[in-house]
Amino acid sequence: MTIQPVNRPNGETQPAAVLEVSGLTVSYRDRNGTRTAVRGIDFRVDPGEVVALVGESGSGKSSTAQAIIGLLPENGRLEKGSIRLNRQEIAGWPQKRLDGIRGSIVSLIPQDPGNALNPVKTIGKQVAEIFAIHDQSSGPVAYAQAIELLGRVGLYQPTVRAQQYPHELSGGMKQRVLIAIAIALRPSLIIADEPTSALDVTVQKHILDLIDALRREYGTALLLVTHDLGVAADRADKLVVLQHGRIQEQGRTGEILRAPQSAYTRQLLANAPSLNAGRRRVPAAARAPATEPDDIIVVENLIQDFGLGGGHFRAVDDISFRVRRGTTHALVGESGSGKTTTIRTVAAFQKPTAGNVFVDGLDLACLGGETLRLFRKKIQLVYQNPFGSLDPRQTIARVVEEPLLNFDPISRAERVERVASTLERVGLTLDMLQRRPHALSGGQRQRVAIARALVLGPQILVLDEAVSALDVTVQAQILALLDKLQRELGLTYLFVSHDLAVVRQIADTVSVLKEGKVVDSGPVEAVFGDPQHPYTRELIAAIPGKKYPPIPRRSSLTGAGTNP
């Protein structure tokens, strides 16, 4: 299959589209019947072009990508429509025929490299397979080509990496392996389905830079599926905005960012932290004067070691920071920087190897027994994945009530009242009390997780990547809720995140961690405006969405959309 020119009426020629999608409709069957996920959409991708499909979960992005490459799940069905790849109609092709073009004409870079690679086969053999499957080469020749490819995608010591198994590689390294497989046969089109959503910001930038460089070198077109509008703004020539399976608008990226025509697109752009660099909530210090302007969290020279193979590994190395009551302090850094270890120590889940931690005047080294149990009422955690942290067997009422059963000996009537009022405080309706987590959206589940943390009346919430798994609009709604709760209840937040765009929007102060050490700290405006450490500058430079100037939006976080 080769790219053919198209004759235009004025005599000019233009390369035919690599991909033309027309009237695409995709449905899914389940026990409740048939649900239409993609509703008659049309778009095209030209040679060498980057087109981004953007929208929230359920918008039809991934269903569209899967339909194009013929990888819909078993209950998925391409109902109608045309899919032309290099001018050849492939809609309705059987799997065996599609196998002949997957990898050679169209390739997929999936979202989760951990699940996409075979855990019991070496990296080299997995990359070499693509050559053997398409009868390009085999044996030692294919293996040598695999090693060359691993080096081409920037893996250090590719010969060594080829002999390793997936569990021995980092997330970024595994994603590079998948890119190597995708580009091996120089396809006309690569479909990248959320290729960096699970990666740290600097790793994300390196991976996207790599895809860009390879695309330009090979002239490959890219269909980028993403919910990150900052990434789409920086990388895509065109945007296709999807909502509920329909295209809301499409066009050149700059034109849509400057003058979005759809109300839905305007809402997406307004809620994207990376596209709203100037948008900040009112800092806590500038609000109504606090009655107790003290430091509620004090961490002094914290060291945390772990045993490792007969020796020890220092996860946290002499960290110090202070958090004033009623403010938000962010811990930022890449995976392995020490963020999670630090918050586990602050929450008294582990004792420090050295150093001191004080929470509301209490020395955590002195806590034990009943005092430790009661301390847990003072500080509560909200985790990244609410679906994993909520018991699927319990009703929402039981989920929120459970901490009261563990801590407060109050009557059942009082518990029911406390649960109901807390649920309403986080913006949920009482008709949800008898539902179970699976019946709620991701944003609703995270509101339940926040309600469960609030029901004991804590002074501190530790938010561990609490919005990173949410779509941009739902994320904005949860951030607005957290801001509202802090204002109303005087809460202190310890906010852990690798997303610096969100940190810039929500936090008052920040500590930047690298390899267990604090390399930069201070007020958010100072750290982002004048970073002192090269690592901080690298993190800030890697925030997507800088290609176009910030979009003027609302100045407050409150009122961002409706409840998910």
UniProtKB/TrEMBL annotation:
Q: What is this protein called?
A: Peptide/nickel transport system ATP-binding protein
**Domain of life, per lineage:** Bacteria
Q: Which Pfam families match?
A: ABC_tran, oligo_HPY
Q: In what residue span(s) does the ABC transporter domain sit?
A: 19-269, 297-540
Subcellular locations according to the entry: Cell inner membrane
Q: What is its main location?
A: membrane
Entry's Gene Ontology cellular component terms: plasma membrane
One record GO biological process: transmembrane transport
Similarity remark = Belongs to the ABC transporter superfamily.
What is the species listed in this Swiss-Prot or TrEMBL entry?
Rhizobium mongolense USDA 1844
Query: From which lineage does this chain's organism come?
Result: Bacteria, Pseudomonadati, Pseudomonadota, Alphaproteobacteria, Hyphomicrobiales
Q: Which Gene3D superfamilies match?
A: P-loop containing nucleotide triphosphate hydrolases (3.40.50.300)
NCBIfam families reported in the protein's UniProt record:
PRK10419.1, PRK11308.1
Membrane topology of this protein: Peripheral membrane protein
Single GO MF descriptor: ATP binding
Spell out the SMART domains in the cross-references. Answer: AAA
Q: Which UniProt keywords apply?
A: ATP-binding, Nucleotide-binding, Transport
